[in-house]
Write a structure and sequence with these properties.
alpha/beta, Rossmann fold, seven-stranded parallel sheet, 47% helix, binds nicotinamide-adenine-dinucleotide, binds magnesium ion, isoprene biosynthesis, DXP_reductoisomerase_C, 1-deoxy-D-xylulose 5-phosphate reductoisomerase, NADPH binding
């Protein structure tokens, strides 16, 4: 049976791997809509290749260029953030949310509100607005299927019918490119150094988050939103080989884990095919070649971002939203050369100290807190650059 599919963030790392799966499985999905931030050439190429009905670019100034790139294809198009929301709102059974950052929140909500099956890669949306998104999913009958490899692993081994059987949920982390570096040795690192992930190939923002370990912090918060477990049941362990993608420890002492090669097409295919499994070309694990699996405790002193995320998760309310907004600004500043690598955790810590956190119950409240935190973080970036 052919199922309809929309991919938000189709030109990125996750989005293009989702499209790779579409191309490898003719007839399984019919693509309704694709979206991108600003790259209209890649977006139009992808839309033509998969026969999408609608393509939207978030950059409002790129509407004409997208129309031209799609000329003669019969594919409708739109531009601006509202067009991306329109893409998500169009009738597709499955939506993969592969936009990076809190920019993914409005389109994700549009898909949630029509009860779609959502493969959620866009973790920032769950970090800044988890309770709002999950409550809406429940109210509208949307299914949230995690694409993030750790959460997908947990989803696969979690006792959904009886969560009381769970004692702990343990997220694995590769440790990133600076796993064994001192703080001093991290000071002058370049964007290229920070993006050299040891095991996964990903977009720039998440690669830098992996280097600061903020990615694992965001994932802790994400796990708390996706699974019925308390903060104290969540843990992180560094596992440099990235073979075990995460684990669930049961009350009898059994630990169930999902293993695989570090290829995002495995969790993406899981979310796109669910409840069926789909064949992927991912490399099969060769245990003899892997030879050893090792583990170490995360170092919260060298990686303060992970400690900040733990604290924000414990504080709850708007604290995760403030953390995420400040991190997005700080990472963008690092990429643009306006801040150093070690400024990232400092800017996040200072923003959290400056913006009072409190309860957030509605989407509008989340959007307002996000905007305030971004302003404060931008001010901190400017002060550093001056
Ligand atoms: P990426 O930078 O490669 O791609 C991001 C996509 O979002 C692109 O299509 C881009 O055009 C679009 N986009 C950017 N800004 C936008 C905006 N303001 N409005 C609308 N669209 C915009 O990122 P990625 O690595 O594919 O990651 C996407 C999401 O998936 C992130 O939240 C990331 O944390 C998560 N994730 C990624 C991986 C991975 O392997 N790359 C793994 C786990 C989770
Ligand atoms: Mg992950």
């Amino acid at each position: 049976m052919t199922r309809s599919l929309t991919i938000l963030g189709a030109t990125g790392s996750v989005g293009s791997q989702a499209l790779d799966l579409v191309a490898r499985n003719p007839g399984r999905w019919r693509v309704e809509a694709l979206t991108a931030g600003s790259d209209v050439v890649r977006l139009a190429e992808a839309a033509r290749a998969c026969g999408a009905r609608f393509a939207a670019v978030a950059d409002a100034g790129k509407g004409q260029a997208l129309k031209e790139a799609l000329a003669g294809s019969g594919i409708e198009s739109g531009a601006g953030p509202e067009a991306v929301v329109e893409a998500a709102a169009r009738d597709a059974e499955i939506v993969i949310t592969a936009i990076v950052g809190a920019a993914g929140l409005p389109p994700t909500m549009a898909a949630v509100r029509r009860g779609a099956q959502i493969g959620i890669a866009n973790k920032e949306t769950l970090v800044c607005a988890g309770p709002v998104v999950t409550a809406a999913a429940k109210a509208h009958g949307a299914t949230l299927l995690p694409v993030d490899s750790e959460h997908n692993a947990i989803f696969q081994v979690f006792p959904h019918d009886d969560p009381a059987q769970v004692e702990r949920v343990i997220l694995t982390a590769s440790g990133g490119p600076f796993r064994s570096r001192s703080r001093e040795a991290m000071r002058g690192v370049s964007v290229a150094d920070a993006c050299k992930h040891p095991t996964w190939s990903m977009g720039a923002k998440i690669s830098i988050d992996s280097a600061t370990l903020m990615n694992k912090g965001l994932e802790l918060i994400e796990a708390g939103q996706l699974f019925p477990v308390s903060v104290d049941q969540l843990g992180v362990i560094i596992h440099p080989q990235s073979v075990i993608h995460s684990m669930v420890e049961y009350n009898d002492g059994s630990v169930l884990a999902q293993l695989g090669s570090p290829d995002m097409r495995i969790p993406i295919a899981y979310a796109m095919g669910w409840p069926e499994r789909i064949a992927t070309p991912a490399q099969r694990l060769d245990f003899a070649a892997v030879a050893q699996l090792s583990f170490e405790k995360p170092d919260l002193e060298r990686f303060p971002c992970l400690a900040l995320a733990w604290a924000a998760m414990r504080a709850g309310g708007s604290a995760p939203c403030i953390l995420n907004a400040a991190n997005e600004i700080a990472v963008a500043a690092f990429i643009e050369g306006q801040a150093g690598f070690l400024d990232i955790d400092a800017i996040v810590a200072e923003t959290l100290a400056m913006v009072p956190s409190g309860r957030v119950e509605t989407l509008e409240e989340v959007v307002a807190v996000d905007a305030t935190a971004r302003d404060v973080a931008r001010g901190l970036v400017r002060r550093r650059a001056a």
